[in-house]
């Protein structure tokens, strides 16, 4: 009991957690071969709960079956839920065994859902003035939250209180059921009101009150589909309210007094954990080593162990040691001991903590090392505070990097990072020596799973280790209450930072052996890992911009926007906020009565670019002017204004950040600023490119692959006529027009060539007859006839497309010509639009990904080739198929010839790769 003598009951939504753990964790099996990933997640949660969130009373609540009293109210309730996954079925019983082994009561009641039992226990506790904490993230339970009832997300370890409920539903806990009744729930087959989503539902409830008040007000609402739907489906909403309202008056199957927390029987729990092979949980519970761990590991690790080739690293179970406690290192002698230990280990993980997200400006406020799973330390360097214990003993940044130099320069010790480029730049700015050799768990994962999931450390940890790391928000707070990391107390900073290094090392032990199994080792070692240093150097160098020209352009764009805005108001017949989609929609579709308008979920008219373009194509003047205004506004805010803010005033250079593990296809992306989306074919785009300049005495050199994706298509699809055209250096679009439309090459009509060009590039992206008709301004029938003629002339291309779709459906991924797996989520989706999109991805990904692989190969080879030739050119940017260099005027031609040679020989295809080069005082001239 607590001080007041009333209970603090912790209730676990056992059924909800089972499904969440099953889908969150990779497949695992116990020594008997039984699937146990959900069991493992459940035990981890229960262990943490009993050690860190101890109430006075504890119970786990389960569903007794799928049929409850709600099926009597509405027979279709949960009727369309899919069958339980086969691997999950045996885990229900094991989780109930786990509950008993931990000495925790497991409660269920026939005819009622677990949520109803939880609601009844919560109500009882509330009535006696106790406290109830519900371990769940289920939205249906949020209606219970109040002064004496809160929730805790078991995966994120975050509390859920009234504020979080309001952020999710737009209303307080007492009105959650009214919102749910209006919006329905397709997961549980709760009907709700068609066309009403969460935002509309919460707005109605906030305006009118509970469900009955909303329904009563419906006839007085302005004529609309929403009003009609509310009137027509009122009874469905009332049924929905009954379905979503939890019963709070069920007689408690087990009295609260019988739920007091008990310590588990060590022998019983230890034996059961041994049977499951959960050694890490034994450690966490302080039960010793127990029996040897057998097969509790991910399927990928088991595959690596069974592969004919030996794994790249000695097999280490990532969960054989607890996560912490970790050591705080505040003196040089202790740091030097850790350096010695890391060198003896032969592999260690390294991570930095900084006071910003820009590695070229951020200070390193601390660093962490891990030498083996479970053993890690944190070294505070620039922590602040008022307590002597917080800042009294601290190593300086200079002394720390000096002490680390023997480790970082030791070629026999592998240094492992998660997102190594960031940390290498941070160490470089702090004066550290070059670090080698390195591995990067983010890129190790990306090389074999692009598009399958995110590559952040937290996500990889959950996926491969079944462990949820401490979050940054947990140690620094959020919003106005957030503090700087250097102000975090050292105990909390150590737990967070050292765990990052520990998790990184564990991920390396799991993921690196999989590279060979997943045929991604050559990809990673060949150009993903070597590219880290190349891109880091490019980011440090940056590219010079002309501030005067940018200001002139910004003023020019602003002036043109004012002029266009006046024209817009004249056409519209009145003034309005041109930047307001809502006001624009009202003018286009309410006042001007243009056809083709569509309302979004909020009821407002959609005015996105596709809608406006359709209207402009129909000949309407106003949408075209809006598109022009928006284009100028975007260019002004994204480039001319942003580049001035992001320019280093000391060097007049901007420094983009290249993201290495974002896209599905392997393409790099850039941000802060994004220099890969500057329009190519517009005069405004050319004007912006003129703002990127070469320093005095130098030139910018552009080297651009010519039609690389079409060349890849001709190569992999084995199209003889296209191959011949590329080999002869013919105009590929004119040759296509000649082949498909039966017209001579000589004197080719430009319009006919344009149509062939649209088909050539459209095919790469799986273009449809509808898409081609819109692009060329022709009928659907004519467009379809063009595509049919194209495939009739080039049957190999249709075969290629069909093969890629079949490959994606069979494997879940497609493979680029250089061996990169590009995963295609949604390829087997029941939703036709989603599946069609995935099929287009499957067609395009090998081509776009192949192009990305080829230019990466070239980028890795170029620095060495330039240095060997004695050329001092500096690579500045990569923009998809183009590389941009800064070169001395005297060596510009020689450099262009070498760059062209390296790039054209980066891969051997059935057709030649061609690189076009250009030079100039600015990017526009070079491009």
UniProtKB/TrEMBL annotation:
One of its GO terms (molecular function) is DNA-directed DNA polymerase activity. Gene3D superfamilies: 3.30.70.370, 5' to 3' exonuclease, C-terminal subdomain, 5'-nuclease, Ribonuclease H-like superfamily/Ribonuclease H, Taq DNA Polymerase, Chain T, domain 4. Coiled coil: none annotated. Residues 326-516 form the 3'-5' exonuclease domain. InterPro entries: 3'-5'_exonuclease_dom, 5-3_exonucl_a-hlix_arch_N, 5-3_exonuclease, 5-3_exonuclease_C_sf, DNA-dir_DNA_pol_A_CS, DNA-dir_DNA_pol_A_palm_dom, DNA/RNA_pol_sf, DNA_polI_H3TH. Pfam families: 5_3_exonuc, 5_3_exonuc_N, DNA_pol_A, DNA_pol_A_exo1. Its EC number is 2.7.7.7. This is DNA polymerase I. It comes from Acetobacter conturbans. The gene is polA.
